Amino acid sequence: MKRESMRMVGVFLFLLLPAMALAAYPEREITVYNGSTAGGVTDMAARILSDMVSKMFGQPVVVVNKPGAAHTICANLVANAKPDGYTLGTLSASAFTQVPHYRKVPFDWKKDFTWIGAYTEYTSGLVVKNDAPWKNLNEFLDDAQKNPGKIIYGSDGHGMGTHVLMEYIALKRGGVNWKHVPIAGGPKLATALLGGHIHAWSAAGTHVQMIKDGQVRLLVAFNNIRMKAAPDVPTLMELKITDISVGTSLVIIGPRNLPEPILKKLEEAYLKAMKDPSYLQYLDRVEFPHIFAGAKETEKSMERQYEGWGEMIRATGIKEEQR
Asked: Residue 308 is part of which domain span?
């Protein structure tokens, strides 16, 4: 009888171990892959949040940059990770809402991830040098219509949102024929614009400080709200160029089948960090919106963004880049 009782206690403890492990999470370092290069807003915002979460958990939360292939390299690393809460990702939603429309990706974005939250949205728009002849988008488009092939603009990649939006603008205006040059990374795009290698830059993030410094002029804001640094410049929706919400969120993800107790801990910790005054001050400094979401809201937002970008990509006819 005593032996049987001991056996039952052993079985009970064995069954209890997984629950105890979940309750103790995290017990060691958490790795957060980031889809951008070091120093950009996608990276810096993720680092600020992860530092705060590290303090809450009492464990290191280490951000590791894994840029490339429009953030899909980062996404794939997370998709193939063990769902134990020790491997996460912070990246642009473009990996899920834009890229799959024109390129085969090594994951199923609807099934292979656990959505944890969204920590802001890219601030994007079309900029030119401050001494450029165009004072607004209409003048820029008029020039492009009158001089086919003259205008050269840069974006951060073929098929990225900044590329899609420019081609959608051309489609809606009609008779616009310009040349697109994909250039990876905001600093390189800024150099190309200021050096006269491109006439315009379809930008996301890095351009904000340059507007404040008077180096570049904003012709149109791609977000649904105007930029504080250029309050007189209208948005695409105000100009009635599109009625599609074209935001691109920055999201926090885990592998699929992340246990609910771990998801809840991560979601609560990151949402708390997003509301911290120091994080909000950083977003204000770089002029990124206070757009935050938890797990369920992020999942719904990804569906909406996927449909909206898909409509524009199909309309423009953008296909996978031929190499």
From this structure: 30-121+247-316
Strand partners, 220: 126
- CATH number, domain containing residue 266: 3.40.190.150
In contact, 120 and 288? CB cutoff 8 Å: yes
How far apart are the C-alpha atoms of 220 and 125, rounded to whole Å?
Answer: 6
Predicted TM-score (pTM) of this structure? 0.85
How far apart CA 224 and CA 205 sit, in angstroms, is 15
Q: Residue 178: how many CB atoms within 10 A of its CB?
A: 22
Give the tens place of pLDDT for each residue, 239-270.
998 877 678 999 999 999 999 999 999 999 99
Boundary (domain end) residue, out of 172, 203, 221: 221
CB 163 within 8 A of CB 318: yes
pLDDT tens for 194-215 read 999 999 999 988 899 999 999 9
Q: 97, 302 in Cβ contact below 8 A?
A: yes
Query: 256 burial class (0-12, 13-18, 19+ CB within 10 angstroms)?
Result: middle
User: Does the residue 236 lie in any domain?
Assistant: no
Residues 6 or more apart from 265 whose CB is under 8 A from it?
25, 85
Axis-axis angle for helices 161-173, 295-316 (nearest 10):
50
The per-residue pLDDT for range 104-113, each reduced to its tens digit, is 999 999 999 9
- Residue 135, classed as helix, strand or coil, is coil
Say whether both 139 and 117 belong to one domain. Answer: no
The token pair at 242 is 């599109």
Q: Phi and psi at residue 50, in whole multiples of 5°?
A: -65, -35
What tokens were used for 112? Answer: 């292979």
